[in-house]
Amino acid sequence: MYYSTRGWQHPVSAAQAIVGGIAPDGGLYVPSAIPQINTVFIEQLIAKTYQQRAQDVMGLFLPEFDAVELTQCINSAYTKTKFPDPKIAPVINLKSTAALLELWHGPTAAFKDMALQLLPQLLVTSLHKLNLTGRIAILVATSGDTGKAALAGFKDVDQTEVIVFYPEDGVSAVQKLQMVTQTGANVHVVAVKGNFDDAQTGVKHIFSDRELARILADQSIQLSSANSINLGRLLPQIVYYFSAYADMIKSGRIKTGDVINFVVPTGNFGNILAGYYAKQMGLPVGRLICAANNNNVLAEFINSGVYNRNRPFHQTLSPSMDILISSNLERLLYHLTDGSTEQVTAWQQQLQTEGCYHVTSAVKQKLTSLFWSDWSSDDDTCAVIRRVYQQHGYLLDPHTAVAWSVFERYQQETGDDTTSIIVATASPFKFADSVLAALTGQTVEQGGLESLFKLAELTNTIVPESLTALVDQPILHTAVCNKNDMRKMVTLRLLAD
Ligand SMILES: *Cc1c(COP(=O)(O)O)cnc(C)c1O
Fold first, then answer.
1. Sequence-ordered list of residues with C-beta below 8 angstroms from that of 380, at least 6 positions apart, any chain
2. If you placed Cys at 7, which of 76, 143, 183, 341 could pair as Cys (CB 3.0 to 4.6 Å)?
3. Counting beta carbons within 10 angstroms of the beta carbon of residue 59, is it exposed (0 to 12), middle (13 to 18) or buried (19 or more)?
């Protein structure tokens, strides 16, 4: 069963949580108990495929899905066409103390695909289970990667519509092109004049708009979210922590039971939260290292216990981490307060009214024992991209480079040389302008697709096919709106026919 972080008393099934997205009181759904695994469970994963590992891990959270249903969901998500690498999420050994977990082999070349290819399958299966016959309209606010991944995942999926809002000037040229060229009869893409937080706040207001919900319900339409707060996004992300651990045993780098760290480039706190769940389930994880960019709210929070969003918003080279309100943190607060929904609600209210809250010293203590955090400036991030390419011949995208940079600082400051896995969240080609600039030391104007081919030539590497395919696709979506007009855009699109 799943409960709201804000105290709404009625437990719901996983299917209801996935269809609902967010709880009626505005809270996020959390499991009533975190399933526990043992070493046998881990050892059995070693010989399995990624798909089988997903089945084992997710099955623990989805008792109402039978094995056949879950297999069907997983096999339609992680296909050969969508994920050309048969390992799905391969682990690359680069140096003695660190390996990389590549999560960008899906159709949009960023880690969001890992969850967003599976979420639509889980959602449609959930609708059938609940005998719901109307349409679900998925609303997404994106800082770049989620939007395209949601569009690609939901494209032409029965009973669904998907509307994506992105900050007009807050995404890369390639990200924008990926979204505005998206085909599918049920997809809608709108640029918002504002930053990611404006888009996300707008979407949250639409979700809590009772009158709109009623108008849509009259047409058998229900709103839901594909943002990383949806339980159906979180569960698929837990899988790759287990998969990476199993692959590290398989390659002989660790033995079963050895503790490893994970370094996660963090924005909305979804990816690293999945790592926290893996650890709580019993996976031998030491520290979860939370890497931030110049928007360093989380780094400050983990080090001081004060969450303060009252600060300037920076556009950085790692735009998918340009976030001041990390929504998924609410789930962590719930667990660290042993499920105190009053406390969580109070902090979230303070965040809304004052932009700031302090956690108790007990929570602060748990935070610092589980996590370590720091941030990387754009200059440091560029230097890392250049240096890692020179030393290892490996191209990091700016988000992964933030993680690498923070990992180096972690090792220097703590002296901890536990084997660590740096989570690689995007293909370098998705951010080719920035990577080119970092490698050459020259400024690169937004070069769009041109830069991809330049980068490939310079480094003698191959552009992922999903990105080269953008070359001759027509632009299908040109709508732009003010942040106060997002509701109107939704009604226009959903009630048009
Ligand atoms: C979304 C994203 C992140 C941040 O992940 P969260 O789950 O939001 O913390 C990091 N890197 C890339 C490339 C992303 O797309």
1. 405
2. 341
3. middle
Find the residues whose C-beta lies inside 6 A of ligand 1.
110-112, 145, 228, 265-271, 320-321, 399, 425-426
Measure 171 CA to ligand 1 centroid, in angstroms.
13
Q: Which of 102, 241, 301, 321 to mutate to test the pocket of ligand 1 (most atoms within 8 A of CB)?
A: 321
Nearest CA residue ID for atom 8, ligand 1 = 268
Q: Of 223, 183, 135, 214, which is closest to residue 486 (Cα–Cα)?
A: 223
pTM of the model: 0.94
Cα 51 from chain centroid? 19
Distance 109 CA to ligand 1 centre (A): 12
Q: Hey, whose CA ends up nearest to atom 14 of ligand 1?
A: 320
Catalytic entry in 80, 87, 95, 112: 112
Residue whose token pair is 């009973």: 159
Closest ligand 1 atom, residue 265 Cα:
10
Q: Which residues of 474-484 are buried (b: 16+ CB within 10 A; e: fewer)?
A: eeebeeebebe
Q: Residue 480 Cα, ligand 1 centroid: separation in angstroms? A: 24
CA of 100 to the centre of ligand 1 (A): 15
pLDDT per residue rounded down to tens, the chain (497 residues) = 999 999 888 999 999 999 988 898 989 999 999 999 999 999 999 999 999 999 999 999 999 999 999 999 999 999 999 999 999 999 999 888 899 999 999 999 999 999 999 999 999 999 999 999 999 999 999 877 889 999 999 999 999 999 999 999 888 888 899 999 999 999 999 999 998 889 989 998 998 899 999 999 999 999 988 878 899 999 999 999 999 999 999 999 999 999 999 999 999 999 999 999 999 999 999 999 999 999 999 999 999 999 999 999 998 999 889 889 899 999 999 999 999 999 999 999 999 999 999 999 999 999 999 999 999 999 999 999 999 999 999 999 999 999 999 999 999 999 999 999 999 999 999 999 999 999 999 887 777 788 999 999 999 999 998 899 888 899 999 999 999 999 999 999 998 75
Give the helix/strand (H/E) hosting 4: strand 2-4
| Ligand 1 pocket mutation pick from 268, 302, 376 by most atoms within 8 angstroms of CB | 268
Query: Any residues with CB less than 8 A from the CB of 40 and at least 6 apart, and which?
Result: none
Q: Active-site residue 95, yes or no?
A: no
